[in-house]
Design goal:
- This protein is α/β, with parallel strands linked by helices.
- It has 5 helices and 3 strands.
- A 3-stranded parallel beta sheet has the order 1-2-3.
- Helix 3 runs parallel beside helix 4.
């Protein structure tokens, strides 16, 4: 994706952040389905929620693995402002990691 396109995507998600959770039923469903595939017990000390949005999946990870540090990463900083404080928040472009 080109830099101007990334900027437009970030701006669109920044603008949508406040009402995002009201319209994100598919994303919540996907988070639940993905969480079913995770191991029941894990010794992971750090978990990454890449493209975390408002942190719905980050919360699931924190609840399921309370001993792990959850890193919530998203391109849109306004989305990150809605992530629960228990997570470490990083504003970054996943394609550049």
């Amino acid at each position: 994706m080109t830099q101007p396109a990334r900027t437009l995507v970030r701006q669109a998600f920044d603008q949508a952040a406040e009402g995002y959770d009201l319209a994100a039923s598919i994303q919540r469903h996907a988070c639940h389905r993905l969480s079913l595939g995770l191991p029941a017990a894990s010794t992971a000390s750090r978990l990454l929620d890449a493209g975390c949005g408002t942190g719905y999946g980050s919360q699931l990870l924190s609840q399921r693995f309370p001993a792990a540090t959850v890193l919530a990463l998203d391109l849109a900083s306004a989305m990150l402002q809605r992530v629960p404080a228990a997570c470490l928040r990083v504003s970054a472009d996943l394609e550049h990691l």
